[in-house]
Design goal:
This protein has helices at 20-26, 36-53, 66-75, 91-102, 120-129, 153-162, 213-221, 231-238, 249-265, 267-288, 315-326, 352-368, 377-386, and strands spanning 9-11, 59-63, 83-87, 106-110, 135-141, 143-144, 149-150, 168-172, 191-195, 206-210, 291-292, 304-308, 328-330, 341-345. The chain is α/β, with parallel strands linked by helices. It has a seven-stranded mixed sheet, sandwiched between helices. It binds pyridoxal-5'-phosphate. The site of pyridoxal-5'-phosphate has 12 residues, from helix 3.
């Protein structure tokens, strides 16, 4: 492959563009992970990352992709044959379900049509009907990255409370943490799962589980086999700023820098920036005359927008045109949405002009791929940003 001048636009909904400051921080020499210099780094990131989850409880950091944290959440709190209720909101929810099934858990689905989030009323009804309290955990994806739909976590928490059900509450925030408002403690979530390569602006390779006192109590009794993911050894080592095995030292340098950058901008400003970019993106989609996957305005994800192709058009043709001509990567349609949907990631290290460049690439790509649309999406987005 020959050199392509200019910056590649990595506008898939994760991994996201890694800022220079993070790349430079990671370029430092690797140090002894049992020495005092590491201990200071370990303490700083283990403490700092809790703020992203808005929790005072421990957050465990794994050298693993998000899938590892999915597994960690389950094996640390559940026993063989336990029933878990998982909302079928999209492709990532289904992948988490697959992990639970392979671990020997009994998965019951809260059905969905992939165009809206988990429904609080349906959750409450299911839990009320569970008279013998067989459901041990409720698992949900906050921002479903295959559809651009965000489930309303506070309302879903309230549904569990109204059913007066003791199930653990587990939430995947892999594409929402540090992009959308999320509150592990205030929303009484027991295990929050996340990963490094989306809103946190790091390369892939770190994942997280935020815990609660109830999750730790369940952990003490849980009988699924666990070794690499075991919170007990991890939390004991973390007490002193260390890890039970070799940590991803250079990614932790990156995490320290990313935490500093998020603090400098301010989390509230970070969330507002993502909301505004998502609004401008929807203004463009509307002007193009295309349809969003998400059907409910109160459930728009601020991290990404998933767009349906007109009947008979191939989303991958558009994605190819955008990549070949403009060096722009757009997200692929996943699972049952393959070929029918493309996704625009507008999360992480991103500003107005990166959004306008992205949308211009999409609009020109729609033309090259002969996809029926109306011009003027970029104009509509600019008007929204300028307002
Ligand atoms: C990206 C993503 C994942 C996948 O995590 P990996 O890091 O690929 O293992 C899981 N859930 C959601 C919601 C995601 O956006």
């Amino acid at each position: 492959m020959s050199y392509r001048a200019g910056r590649h636009f990595l506008q898939i909904p994760g991994p996201t563009n890694v800022p220079e400051r993070v790349l430079r921080a990671m370029a430092r020499p690797t140090i002894d992970h049992r020495g005092p210099e590491f201990q200071a780094l370990g303490r700083s990131v283990l403490d700092g990352v809790r703020n992203l989850f808005r929790t005072t409880s421990p957050v465990v950091i794994y050298p693993a992709s998000g899938t590892g944290a999915w597994e960690a959440a389950l094996v640390n709190t559940l026993s063989p044959g336990d029933r878990v209720l998982m909302a079928d909101t999209g492709h990532f929810a289904n992948l988490w379900r697959g992990v639970a099934e392979k671990l020997g858990l009994e998965v019951v689905a809260l059905p969905g049509d992939w165009r809206r989030g988990a429904e609080p009323e349906a959750l409450e009804a299911h839990l009320r009907a569970d008279a013998d309290r067989a459901v041990k955990a409720v698992c949900l994806v906050h921002s479903e990255t295959s559809t651009g739909v965000a489930s309303r976590i506070p309302a879903l928490r309230q549904a569990i409370d109204q059913a007066d059900h003791p199930a653990l509450f587990m939430v995947d925030t892999i594409s929402s943490l540090a992009s959308m408002d999320y509150r592990h403690d205030a929303w009484a979530v027991d295990v929050t799962v996340s990963a490094s390569q989306k809103g946190i602006m790091l390369p892939p390779g770190l994942s997280f589980t935020a815990l609660s006192a109830r999750a730790l109590a369940a952990h003490a009794k849980a009988r699924l086999p666990r070794s690499y993911w075991d919170w007990t050894a991890m939390l004991a080592a973390n007490e002193k700023g260390f890890f039970p095995y070799t940590p991803a030292t250079n990614l932790l340098y990156g995490l320290q820098e990313a935490l500093a950058m998020l603090a400098e901008e301010g989390l509230e400003q970070v969330f507002a920036r993502h909301v505004r970019h998502a609004e401008a993106t929807r203004a463009a989609v509307d002007a193009w005359g295309l349809e969003l996957v998400c059907q409910h305005a109160e459930e728009y994800s601020a991290s990404l927008t998933a767009v349906l192709m007109p009947e008979g058009c191939d989303a991958d043709q558009l994605r190819r045109a955008a990549l070949d001509r403009y060096d722009l990567s757009l997200g692929v349609g996943l699972g049952r949405l393959a070929g029918k949907v493309f996704r625009i990631g507008h999360l992480g290290d991103f500003n107005d002009l990166s959004l306008i460049g992205t949308l211009a690439g999409v609009e020109m790509g729609l033309g090259h791929a002969d996809i029926p649309h109306t011009a003027g999406g970029v104009q509509a987005a600019m008007a929204h940003l300028a307002a």
